[in-house]
Design a protein that fits this description.
The protein has one domain. It is an all-alpha fold. Helix 1 (about 5-30) crosses helix 4 (about 120-140) and helix 2 runs antiparallel to helix 3 (about 70-105). It is built from 4 helices and no strands.
């Protein structure tokens, strides 16, 4: 195959996670279709986690876990996942609090977007999707 397995793992993991997010939110909304779920952040599962774990899996399986690049991608994955459920989640909660204050004051100020982070379970499910996609890509390229 001519396409990089590393890039394929990232793209497929993102597509699977975002598609899963779209389906979950469509079912929760009683099939009210919200196409923004195909590209927005937050919610179940984490596409960021899926992508970095898919990349980490392919690198580990193809190049070995004792390589510098595997160490680097492991650090990168840890930072991305920590950010998803600690930093972005906190800023999302703060954004929702600011929105509530603006609404309470009946201000004409345009409501800022509150970017949502993830619950730990959403990050874990994203990581599992990434692992599955990474393994699939690895075996396709064997």
């Amino acid at each position: 195959m001519d396409f990089s397995p590393y890039l394929l793992a990232i793209v497929l993991a993102w597509i699977v996670a975002q598609g899963t997010k779209f389906l979950i939110n469509s079912v929760k909304g009683r099939w009210v279709i919200d196409y923004r779920q195909l590209y927005t952040s937050g919610s179940m599962p984490s596409s960021h986690s899926a992508s970095v774990i898919a990349l980490m899996s392919v690198i580990g399986l193809r190049d070995g876990v004792d390589t510098a690049v595997f160490g680097l991608v492991t650090l990168f994955a840890a930072i991305v996942m920590y950010d998803a459920f600690m930093v972005r989640r906190s800023t999302g909660e703060q954004g929702e609090a600011i929105q509530a204050l603006i609404k309470e004051q009946k201000s004409k100020v345009r409501l800022p977007r509150a970017a949502k982070g993830h619950e730990p379970l959403e990050v874990a499910v994203g990581a599992l999707i990434g692992l599955a996609v990474g393994l699939g890509v690895f075996f396709i390229y064997q």
